Amino acid sequence: xxxxxKLKKIAFVGNYPPRQCGIxxxxxxxxxxxxxxxxxxxxxxxxxxxxxxxxxYPSEVRFVINKRDINTYQKAADFLNFNNxxxxxxQHEYGIFGGTEGSHILAFLRNLKMPxxxxxxxxxxxxxxxxxxxxxxxxxxxxxxxxxxxxxREFLKTIYNASDDIIDVIPHGIPDMPFxxxxxxxxxxxxxxxxxxxxxxxxxxNKGIEYVLKALPKVLAVFPNLVYIILGAxxxxxxxxxxxxYRMNLERLAHDxxxxxxxxxxxRFVDAEELKEFIGAADIYxxxxxNKAQITSGTLSYSFGCGKAVISTxxxxxxxxxxxxxxxxxxxxxSDAIAVEIIKLLQDEPRRHAMRKKAYMLGREMVWNNxxxxxxxxxxxxxxxxxxxxxxxxxxxxxxEQSMELPTFKFNHxxxxxxxxxxxxxxRFTIPQYSEGYCLDDNARAFLLTILLEEIGLMDDQIEAxxxxxxxxxxxxxxxKKNRFRNFMDFNRKWKExxxxxxxxxxxxxxxxxxxxxxxxxxxxxxxxxxxxxxLPILTELTSPRAWAFGLxxxxxxxxxxxxxxxxxxxxxxxxxxxxxxxxxxSDEKWHWFENYLVYDNARLSQxxxxxAKSSQNQRAFDIGIESLRWLxxxxxxxxxxxxxxxxxxxxNRNGTRANFDQQPISAYEIVSACLxxxxxxxxxxxxxxxxxxxxxxxxRNDLGLxxxxxxxxxxYDALHxxxxxxxxxxxxxxxxxxxxAEMYRVENLIKSYEHVKSYx
Length: 761
What we know:
The chain is an alpha/beta fold and 761 residues long. The chain is built from 29 helices and 23 strands.
């Protein structure tokens, strides 16, 4: 009772009904179980919203966090701090939070003053670098970690170096159901007198349901009085991208197999009471998932704990839960094995019921009332641990204490400049100049922007529609006869050339390679892969070092996904050597550069070497990249410490006088991008600070103290002249700002991870 009095307020953070997903259901069940068992404790909820959803949440939801808006995470932390919350119980799954690999949640955790107990619904055994950083910082901010399996505990210790002392293994909760004969429920679904096999959960292609359907003809030959119930709506993300094609394919398959009389689809998300009845009616529950790397499954836990005979593929959770004859494991994607095991279980009633009893008895430990007590025990452990939050204050901080606040994305002018063909090159003020037509350079940049927006969680239907327009322009620009991209097109959609500039070839490959690596849109990835491979040989024939650099950046992205492509590797190594030789030919103690002049997109040469040196194991290339970029950056810092790019009104020839005006937005963007990449590779804050200085050039930290970013339209002015800003908002300028902002957003919430992870280790 004394511990009950101590826990006055608990905040649960995660997805929440009426949102329909497994995390929402789990958060709801856990919160209600704790509230029911500890009625004098206030159990409030902070719900995650995706896209522009506007749910009618129940009264326990006190605060809504917008997945994509990092500011709402910080405000949510303040809300909890001001309301004297005792414990925060966070449900973690990478995809439910915004930012790179869900990194926005770190902004929330950094500002909390109370202990955090984190339930890990996914623990990856092969995380990418960003996933690893996010997880390690998440662990470091958590007083306790809850995993649902022993394998999860081992992963946390061996992969993420988490201390065993802070890990609690608490199984997935389940509803409390009596152990009854399935026939008790069958008449409610009109399947009395039949054997029932059940699969439930949100439908998606990785569920493997087609393999059960293919197994049914053999099963029906022995047990013709059998039905297979597939319960659940299609996953909302699948519906957004592909509609109901997966469900339709399953229905078509059932028709083609001649089993449509034995298959029942319930295409909806059912509540807990309905679900109990469906589970109760099942003789066998089956989870034919295709991905081994699944650390927990709520549907498996529910069915197992309610005393069902379970057949499953051997994903991690199933291997652990169904051991010791508590269930049956079958190989992945093996319809014959599924058929054999279904028949065996139905023929051997004593074995089936013994399996049910074993599962049910173990499941008594998993009912939500018991799980609630285990969670509260974990909460009490978290409160008793020494938590040093002395350095954490509310998110109202001095400028010295917080990272620079980034502008909010606005796409008004980007949309204004884009028509059904692509993005218009130039503008008179904010009015598109149709007479100037289009170019591949800008459409490649615009396409690259949409991929970065997708990566940081800002891809909505409008941005996706823009992405398709820019992709279509790139596709149309490819001259099949010349195997080259064209660049300039007039407003009447007539090409002005058969072959575009070297730079436009490189920029197109850069955008395509980034799409291959970073986009999750399969149609875009497949298209980009095919066009990238067709256009790739172009690079070795080009003479522009900048085109080589653009291409190298694209190759580096492409090889993140297609690491064994020997052609791409050979071209990469060839271009790296060209840049190395160019640098060694032209540089000296005072001039650390590849050429005898500095013009536009200079930093891309250094950036290309920095990015590709590791994968090519070329230390000399890396050293040159770092050395040249540092020289270039320092050359462009003014006496007052602001960014002063090489001006386009004369550029800068070796031994000559550099031009200080007209300063171009693209020059700020190249430094932002190159320095952020250098920072992520070296973890040296010198590079992050230089990127910030360059980015602030857009916001008025420049020679004239005038902002080039237009906060009304989201566009960017074309140049900084010696006495004024050029108020035209062309495509290149606007895209340079938006690309810089996207890259800053991607890194901004990860920057503290580097220091925090190092101190944690």
